[in-house]
# Entry
Amino acid sequence: MTSSPFSTGTTELPHTGDRGVQLVPFQPCLARPLAEAIAAMEPWSVMNYPAEKLAALLANSDAGVSRYLVSLDGTEAGLVSIRSPWLKGPYLEILALLPHAQGLGIGASIMAWFEATALRGDARNLWVCASAFNVRAQAFYARHGFAAAAVLPGLVADGYDEVLMRKFPLGGR
# Structure
């Protein structure tokens, strides 16, 4: 099995403006408070996704997953979780920015880092999922070169479809 190019160290993200953005290795002690904040936001709140279930997922150690706390000027601003390797490239299983960190360009910086890191690992694809009703997320990923690859009914919650999106080719090749 190919190893993941995603490290567990702290990563400084390039960011416009005077605010510092870092991806910091996720600590399981943050699982509950961060899960509660994320579960209160769309799309999780729409699907009534339980914070306890999300906290258990985040606290669980998984050798195939790299998780990061998004830090904005030293404060908790969100979460990134990447499964790698996965179908000849990494799968961004969670990108959640808390409301105070949205609209600042942090998501775009994370996507640029995600692709650059995947390219260093010789990835062929990048993968994400977005809830079918979450047109804002789908538009965000489309701006970053992703296209719908499949619709997955009931993947996260019964009665809701997820749209699996793929970026290929990477890095303009």
